[in-house]
Amino acid sequence: MKYISTRGRSPALSFSEILLGGLAPDGGLYLPEHYPQFSDDDLTAMRDMDYRDLAFAILSRLIDDIPAADLKTIIDNTYTAQVYGFTRAGQHAEDITPTLKLEDNLYLLSLSNGPTLAFKDMAMQLLGHLFEYVLNKTGETTNILGATSGDTGSAAEYAMRGKKGVRVFMLSPHQKMSRFQTAQMFSLQDDNIFNIAVKGVFDDAQDMVKAVSNDHAFKAKYKIGAVNSINWGRIVAQVVYYFKGYFAVTQHNQQKVSFSVPSGNFGNVCAGHIARMMGLPIDKLVVATNENDVLDEFFKTGQYRPRGAANTYHTSSPSMDISKASNFERFVFDVMGQDGAKVSALWQRVDQGGSFDLSSLLPTIGAEFGFVSGSSNHASRMQTIRQTKEKYGVVIDTHTADGLKVALEVRDIATPMVVLETALPAKFEDAMVEALGEIPPRPTSLNGIEALPQKFAVMDVSVDAIKAFIEANT
Ligand SMILES: *Cc1c(COP(=O)(O)O)cnc(C)c1O
Q: Which of 261, 296, 397, 457 has minimal Cβ neighbours within 10 Å of its Cβ?
């Protein structure tokens, strides 16, 4: 299996060759040159598999340059009940991504039972094991440099802590994350994890990372890597839980299921799209956005108009506050018949701050690819959290609330609808207190995390300072 770029002008590479990188040299994103197909018989054989076997059945069709026995070990070490143990009452940690029935044909799929209480752990943990394996084979090392406003950074650090050959340098805006998020990251004492609090806002931290990455000599000398949302390894890991969720709510393969996905960078729902392309009987893929509704606008009008960072709202579902949906290009590549030249032309406009119009393809996007969309706002989010508690006795977080709100608007009640639970309420305490008037339950092992000793450096907004810091610590 080779991987090609959505812009059509990069050499085809194997999985291990694209794993540590980000964008393809032509500026595109990697996708497999074809999607493996799962037949009715394959699906029947997969139906009763546990999460690990299911993950192997899927990933082994997409990763052919890691020996099967090694890939199996990596997967078995990643998806354990110990790592994904923060289940709700009535759920089993061994399911890794257990479902929770709200009513007939309406379910949650819990993806947030990992160490940082958000779905990014599902993929990032696998990436940690894969990085260590691939680096060990080649004898290389990597220094992961990133900027975070919360979720991605903590998921990356928990995945990479203690991994041989990997160091993480994570910039975050000084004193701007929640106390819980700060404690989660800064309490890590591992030698290979470096937290750097930048005296600025998230965009300042992000700009520092971009400046370092644009210094090609520095980047090569210090083997600077990234684990951002366009990494193919993250997408591929997320394909698995769509299969797991499908099997959990159906009895046979003639049934179809819809998924509602709280969306920002389009990484999660892109994995759903790929699952559908591989033959999983998905009816609708529901793209649920918050007030940052660039994707909802696209699926309603065919216009893709990314907003600048200055026009991105800070909302109570902050992990979906994006101005540009970086993985969206992967989906558009498929919509355009995998024509890299056409995708290049569209993104030439986006990269210059422009927009594009695919309204003539909207019927295809709805009928052939199954996409529908909707958006949420602070008031509807609060209301959904309250109603879900009243009606079902279940407390959901603000992101999941966006997914459920849109799911209820667009669903056909004869088809099972699975809402992806992308974070646990404990992660967003303030918003939950506003919605319900009470502090959400926290997994007991995280009680008192704010009181643990913290390890971090404070830095001015300075590219030279971060370069010097990396030099001094490698
Ligand atoms: C990252 C994140 C999202 C958005 O996922 P994308 O893959 O960027 O679309 C939604 N909810 C939570 C809690 C997240 O952390």
A: 457
The total of other beta-carbon atoms located within 10 Å of residue 453's CB is 7
**365 in a structural domain:** yes
Summarised one tens digit per residue, pLDDT across range 203-241 is: 889 889 989 988 989 999 999 988 888 899 999 999 999
The residue whose CA has the least distance to atom 15 of ligand 1 is 319
Q: What DSSP designation does 86 have?
A: -
Distance 424 CA to ligand 1 centre (A): 12
Q: Dihedral (C-alpha) 262, 266, 269, 270: value to the nearest 10 degrees?
A: -170
Sign of the torsion formed by the C-alpha atoms of 203, 350, 361 and 23: negative
What does the pLDDT read at residue 440? Answer: 94
Cα of 328 to ligand 1 centre, how many Å? 13
Question: CA distances (Å), 97 to each of 52, 121, 316, 326, 351, in order?
Answer: 11, 11, 25, 25, 37
Catalytic residue among 120, 163, 284, 427: 120
Going by C-alpha positions, the residue among 102, 195, 144 that lies closest to residue 421 is: 102
Can you tell me the distance from the alpha carbon of 106 to that of 418, in angstroms, rounded to the nearest whole number? Answer: 6
Quick check: is 61 in a domain?
no
Range of the domain at 269: 93-117+232-436
Six token digits for residue 166: 């990997």
Placement of tokens 């609090």 in the chain: 197
- With 0-12 / 13-18 / 19 or more C-beta atoms within 10 angstroms meaning exposed / middle / buried, residue 356 is middle
Please confirm, yes or no, whether 221 is among the known catalytic residues. no
Q: What separation in Å is there between the alpha carbon of 322 and the centre of ligand 1?
A: 10
pLDDT at residue 260 in the model: 98
Mean pLDDT of 142-155: 90
Cα angle vertex 71, ends 70, 74, to 5°? 90
pLDDT, residue 183, reads 94
Q: 144 exposed, middle or buried (CB, 10 Å; 0-12, 13-18, 19+)?
A: buried
Q: Is the CB of 320 under 6 A from ligand 1?
A: yes
pLDDT band per the 50, 70, 90 thresholds, residue 346: very high
Q: Which atom of ligand 1 is nearest to the CA of 150?
A: 15
Question: What is the C-alpha separation between 427 and 47, in angstroms, rounded?
Answer: 32
Could you tell me if the CB of 384 is within 6 A of ligand 1?
A: no
Q: Report the pLDDT value the prediction gives residue 23, as an integer from 0 to 100.
A: 86
7 in any annotated domain: no
Give 48-102 pLDDT, tens digit per residue: 999 999 999 999 999 999 999 999 999 999 999 999 999 998 899 999 999 999 9
Please tell me the least confidently modeled range out of 191-200, 310-319, 374-383. Answer: 310-319
In a domain, 417, yes or no: yes
Q: How many domains does the chain have?
A: 1
